[in-house]
Amino acid sequence: MAGGSGTRLWPLSRAGFPKQFLVLGGGNGTSLFQQAVARLHGLADAQITVGAPLVVGNEEHRFLVLDQLRELKAEPAAVLLEPMGRNTAPALTLAALQALETAQGSGADPVLVVTPADHVIPDEVAFVAAMRRAVQQAAGGAIAILGIKPTRPETGYGYIRTEAASRGDAAAGIAPDQRVVRFVEKPDADTAQRYIEAGGYSWNAGMFVLRASVWMAALERFRPDIATACRAAFAARATDAEFVRPGKDEFAAVPSESVDYAVMEKCPGVLDIRMQELDAGWNDLGAWDAVWQMLPKDEAGNATVGDALVADSHNTLVHATSRLVSVVGLDDAVIVETPDAVLVASREKSQDVKTIVARLGKEQRGEQTLHRKVHRPWGWYDSIDNGPRHQVKRILVKPGASLSLQMHHHRAEHWIVVSGTAEVTNGEKVIMLTENQSTYIPLGQVHRLRNPGKVPLEIIEVQSGSYLGEDDIVRFEDTYGRR
Hints:
Elements: H1 32-41, E1 54-58, H2 62-71, E2 78-82, H3 88-103, E3 111-114, H4 124-139, E4 143-148, E5 159-166, E6 177-184, H5 189-198, E7 201-211, H6 212-222, H7 224-235, E8 238-240, E9 243-245, H8 248-252, H9 259-262, E10 273-278, H10 288-294, E11 303-305, E12 308-311, E13 317-320, E14 325-328, E15 333-338, E16 341-346, H11 353-362, E17 373-376, E18 379-386, E19 390-397, E20 405-407, E21 411-419, E22 422-426, E23 429-433, E24 438-441, E25 447-450, E26 457-465, E27 474-477
Parallel strand pairs: 1-2, 2-9, 4-10, 11-13, 12-14, 13-15
Antiparallel strand pairs: 3-7, 4-7, 5-6, 5-7, 6-10, 8-9, 15-16, 17-18, 18-19, 19-26, 20-27, 21-24, 21-26, 22-23, 22-25
Helix pairs in contact: 3-6, 3-7, 6-7
């Protein structure tokens, strides 16, 4: 499930490039999404065959998903694109319907291992062991859930109350079988402390394992309205290569509900629901304070990423993206620098960053949605300078990729090749440019930029005109199906 927006990790996480696609720690420089895919691939053994990943995400992030999967050399079974957010129960339902559709004719009833795409789990050996046990339980018809062994009285998570259904066999490496008694909402501090002292409570991390048919039967039992609406949206789907798009109007009618509220909290005492405890350093990176907890620290408890200098400070996080950030005399603080925005906050209040994001959205400011460097399916562009009637961009085009055939009503463009080879369509002419060569695109001229080479193409684009917004693009042809 890769459809989240990650607003609490602004300004690094943006609506157009949310936290699941960021490299935040561990994973040898891979994103949280890539780490999640690799972890599930690691479940394969003599008893378990792991299929290609099913990804449920946002239409706006579809090329990020494909690019990051290709970096892993992983081909998806399908990328299900939600036309709008409807929480996790509809997301899981779309995946279940797709899995059953794919298995149709074979008689198979696939086991779904359901996990968010934005968690950090340092101990993958422990994860694999717990998840394999959960897969075995799900293969037998049960609903299995992973519960996180709590390390503190946390008020930000829901809890799972369990009781032993079997004692297990430590000598044989068989863990105790835990039956889920009930799910508990996020508690206050005193209640959370009592849970820790009493034992038998685990954090709910939102990771489930169950057969696709078991999910659909449970949903039909507890929320038939969601099941019916999702079936209608799936029946109206359109398919384009790896992308599966549910019917937009039909999906808009799907009630928004979480997996927990729709089904899981109703299961104890009614359906067979079990828990496997996971003690693997799990962290959902729900706010900058959680990122600080995950990162290595100096003797004063300070964690730094990027070009940072810290003096006379304690338990502070500094995340520098594009320049030197110096901090003096700050305790329990968060400083996050990006090329176009800087956040300074108390670690204790880091959850409240979402209020800033809400204000940015209300004021329709671009810093809520995109970074200065914007990723596109063909590469990226970085707006390095701008004024009332000009804008300068660095543009990188991947080998073999091309921008759309397009024109602008309000701006002209100059292109200067920095490295690589550019094929330029400029009106009726098609020319080739190499390093240090340039061309001019008049206002209203139909044009296209393509990289015919084997190495990345980098150019500098200088725009001039009365309006320089990204919506001044009329596309005539596009490799990526954009309008």
